[in-house]
């Protein structure tokens, strides 16, 4: 069975309660379950990880890179949260490993504050899904798993 990583950055543990007008009412647990259901249709296991700590996210990306090289992981669906706009370290981690990463954002970051318009992740991501709500996660999973 193949595996993929669904990785979520800072404050995404607050989904369902944080700014529901912007992010909706689904919890992170709801999103993770939706991801597992979609991946199961492709006989794929989902590993979910969320951290508010940049270094833990970097470690997860490095681990996924090793697993990709070993044929154990097909890719990463990554919502880096606010680190999108600040983290050169996450950019370098993705660039340094050979694993496809799909960047996902629940809200349309380009319709928000100007500082959210720049992404350090997009240049090293295999693709980006922005503003599709939590539906972006299953779309990213299907992209990674469909031949």
UniProtKB/TrEMBL annotation:
PROSITE patterns: DEHYDROQUINASE_II
Enzyme class: lyase
Reaction(s) catalysed by this chain's protein: 3-dehydroquinate = 3-dehydroshikimate + H2O
Assigned keywords, A-Z: Amino-acid biosynthesis, Aromatic amino acid biosynthesis, Lyase
CDD domains, sorted: DHQase_II
Molecular function GO terms recorded: 3-dehydroquinate dehydratase activity
Enzyme nomenclature, EC number: 4.2.1.10
Site feature location: Transition state stabilizer: 18
Quaternary state and interactors: Homododecamer.
Protein name according to UniProt: 3-dehydroquinate dehydratase
Organism: Vibrio paucivorans
